[in-house]
Amino acid sequence: MAIKHNQQIPHNHFRKDWQRRVRCHFDQPGRKSRRRNARLQKAGAVAPRPVDKLRPIVRCPSVKYNRRVRAGRGFSLAELKEASIPRKLAPTIGISVDPRRANLSTESLAANVDRLKAYRARLILFPARTGQHKELDSSKEEIAEHTKEGKVVRKTGLALPITNISREEAIGEVSKGDMPEGTEGAYRKLREARSDARLVGVREKRAKAKAEESQATKK
Q1: Distance (Å, whole) CA 159 – CA 61
Q2: Whose CA, among 48, 64, 108, 138, lies 20 to 30 Å from 153?
Q3: CA-CA distance, 78 to 106, in Å (whole number)?
Q4: Residue 189: phi, psi to the nearest 5?
């Protein structure tokens, strides 16, 4: 039964041990500072390498969000093969690999292969040890040129961003002149094909009965 008017509240429990059940985040500014210092420390430890790895372009799941693209877990083995990058070499040069992922369309395969080739063209490989130059390592001139102030990339995601097209670019008008030949009355053709498929048995039965009647009249 609802309580009315300014009456006494029954069974009031106001003296709870609320200090044990409430958590106050008074350490939020300190945590923010620690996270920033950790990011700077990591960037200094891996320098001149970027702090993140190259990620593929993938579609968001479900019908509601599959119009958008985002960064995926890793490149598939087929994409690495098309880009001529060995599977075991890819993680060592800053490329994330997901062996479980499969390409379901040629468009996604081509887009990620182009992304890998663009990354490989811009990549500068330092020798693992000074004085021991290997085949895949960059030359001294390239290293000296790209290690200047402002040419070192700290984040791969900023150098090769993943962008979605705007709504104005995605939606466009199609005139009748742009449509291929033979598409006139497509809805009507689909309805007729559906009707033909549905009435196959009825029409066969009707034709058979008509043929029997014609034979009976001949006799």
Answers
A1: 26
A2: 108
A3: 11
A4: -65, -40
Whether omega for the bond prior to residue 91 falls within 30 degrees of 0, making it cis, is no
Each residue's pLDDT tens digit, 85-109: 999 999 999 999 999 999 999 999 9
* Rounded Cα gap, residues 58 and 105, in angstroms: 11
pTM given for the model: 0.65
Handedness of CA 91, 96, 100, 103 (dihedral sign): negative
- Cα 80 to Cα 116: distance, rounded to the nearest angstrom: 8
In the structure encoding, which two tokens stand for residue 144, read together?
Answer: 């000296």
Query: What token pair was written down for 115?
Result: 């992304």
**Strand runs (DSSP E) across the chain, as ranges?**
57-59, 69-71
Place of tokens 């690999």: 97
For 186-198, the pLDDT digits (tens) are 888 899 999 999 9
Single-letter residue type at 209: A
In 10 A of CB 31, how many CB atoms? 10
